[in-house]
Amino acid sequence: MAPISTPQTPFGRVLTAMITPFTADGALDLDGAQRLATHLVDAGNDGLIINGTTGESPTTTDAEKNDLVRAVLEAVGDRAHVVAGIGTNDTRHTLELARQAERTGAHGLLAVTPYYSKPPQEGLFQHFTAIADATELPVMLYDIPGRSGVPINTETLVRLAEHPRIVANKDAKGDLGRASWAIAQSGLAWYSGDDMLNLPLLSVGAVGFVSVVAHVVAPDLREMLEAHLGGDVQKATEIHQKLLPVFTGMFRTQGVMTTKAALNLQGLPAGPLRLPLIGLTDEETAQLKLDLAAGGVQL
What span, in angstroms and rounded, lies between the C-alpha atoms of 109 and 54? Predict the structure, then answer.
């Protein structure tokens, strides 16, 4: 049974965009994935994004993606929303992944803007509509023009929101003005996809986070969220400011690289990366330790 959803929070409030643990020889570590997923839910996450970019989805096979969703569902599927990343720049392939995720039991889908090919807005509309039509699962759009090359314009978001299964958006535009208008006009459940802007996006109508730093500071993020929802703006601001070194440190270089390094330092399942991503240098690891310690993270 999936956790309770509401129209306002269809995927929960604090979600980690989870890394994919690998064994020392680079194979998929399903046992590690289950242990990490359990740890993250115990720490305060009520949702997990599996097979997103932070999960190194460009380098995992369709079969590995399926095995990973199944394993995480077995570990935490009755306690957290398990959302499968299915986005690619090939609509047909994306639909295959969406149907696979539905058959395996995922609670929802995360669909990133098709990257590199830079489709026009009508192409985006048809792509996301095809995804929503392909299964009975709720869909979270993922708008990240810095990686995809094109934004989902506000007008397109409003059109897409008319589809009954397109219910949310993960916003990594980094533009609070555009977010404000899009939240007001679309009615989509809005999730921050940029950790530095988690609190600011709450202030303009976001309902929660899809976070990378929640791998290491989920309790703080939940406390900040609950303080904001309870009207204690000062406390929420204090937590945000406390976490600034973590937000900065986890993105000094590529975020998957720093996240796996942080988890390995904590003795949690992570393992190596698959090329083209590589491990941190000794200098980068030393700086990460300083950044995390400055934000109160125990290593």
Answer: 15
User: Can you tell me whether residue 140 is helix, strand or coil?
Assistant: strand
Cβ atoms of 106 and 38 closer than 8 Å:
no
d(CA 293, CA 233): 25
Active site residues: 142, 170
Angstrom distance (rounded) from CA 287 to CA 53: 24
**pLDDT value at 2 more than 80:** no
Using CB atoms within 10 Å of the CB of residue 226, give its burial: 0 to 12 exposed, 13 to 18 middle, 19+ buried.
middle
19 to 41, 225, 247: CA distances (angstroms): 14, 23, 17
Closest CA to 67 of 81, 79, 55, 80: 55
Q: Do 41 and 17 touch, CB atoms closer than 8 A?
A: no
Distance CA 184, CA 84 (A): 27
Give the per-residue pLDDT at 110.
98
Element (H, E) at 47: strand 47-50
The predicted-structure confidence for 4-57, as pLDDT tens digits, reads as follows: 677 699 999 999 999 999 999 999 999 999 999 999 999 999 999 999 999 999
Helices 91-104 and 121-134 cross at an angle (nearest 10°) of 30
Over residues 117-173, the pLDDT tens digits come to 999 999 999 999 999 999 999 999 999 999 999 999 999 999 999 999 999 999 999
Helix (H) or strand (E) holding 16: strand 14-17
Backbone φ and ψ for 48, nearest 5 degrees, come out as -135, 135
What distance in Å separates the CA atoms of residue 32 and residue 59, rounded to the nearest whole number?
Answer: 18
